[in-house]
Specification:
alpha/beta, 6-stranded parallel beta sheet, 6 strands, NAD(P)H dehydrogenase (quinone) activity, NAD(P)H dehydrogenase (Quinone)
């Protein structure tokens, strides 16, 4: 089995780095071959533009989706995209390790998704959700927050973390066909003492060891929405 850990934090000594290493060692001990993409160390290019492609599908208008499909077909994606895409396609388990910044992903991680989740390779017009091209892979989000645990929840100040993570869980991972596992959350990390950090590391290891027993998050099914989609397409064709 293969696992890919995508790590996005600019500080090599961060607690996110500790969690990255916990994942790598735990999964290795469990029999996985583990690859790590350390986006900041790699100086990964976060901005999607025409430099991502050595061919041009349409010189007049830059349609990202069509250019990605064309480049994938003609083997003309940028080398760094190809390298990361190969890791993604090899992986049976994909882990995203990052700090929650402004209720979202660090820009470099969003850029990795923008550039590596190539149209025509990881999803297509009808290859989404349970028909997505990454079906069979499992995905886990491991995230740290600056706010305390009490500030997250249905009626809490910051809202429910599952709602905050929905654009990633639903809009990226489930959308491309992956099975989305319950996330691992470490709250109030900048203010946690050494013992608290040790305890969080141990909890993460236990979370990883229990992956096969975790109940995946419920996600939409394309099959349940085909009628409304077909109706909408017919209306547009009139």
């Amino acid at each position: 089995m293969h696992a890919l850990v995508i790590y996005a934090h600019p500080e090599p000594q961060s607690f996110n780095a500790v969690l990255r290493d916990v994942a790598a060692s735990t999964l290795t001990d469990s029999g996985y071959e583990v690859e790590v993409s350390d986006l900041y160390a790699m100086k990964f290019k976060a901005v999607l533009d025409r430099d991502d492609f050595s061919t041009v599908h349409d010189e007049q208008r830059f349609n990202v989706t069509l250019e990605q499909r064309h480049a994938a077909t003609h083997h003309s994606l940028a080398n760094d995209i190809v390298a990361e895409l190969d890791k993604l396609l090899r992986a049976d388990l994909v882990i995203f390790q990052f700090p929650l910044w402004w209720f979202g992903l660090p820009a470099i991680l969003k850029g990795w998704i923008d550039r590596v989740f190539v149209s025509g390779v990881v999803y297509g017009r009808s290859n989404i959700f349970e028909r997505g091209k990454l079906k069979g892979k499992r995905a886990l989000v491991s995230v740290t927050t600056g706010g305390p645990a009490a500030s997250f929840g249905r009626d809490a100040l910051n809202g429910d973390l599952l709602d905050i993570l929905a654009p990633l869980h639903r809009g990226v991972l489930a959308f491309t066909g992956m099975t989305v596992l319950p996330p691992f959350i470490c709250a109030h990390v900048p203010y946690a003492g050494p013992q608290e950090r040790v305890e969080m590391s141990h909890r993460y290891r236990e979370h990883l060891l229990a992956l096969d027993r975790l109940k995946p998050l419920e996600m939409p099914r394309l099959a349940d929405h085909l009628e409304e989609i077909e109706s909408s397409m017919k209306a547009r064709a009139r």
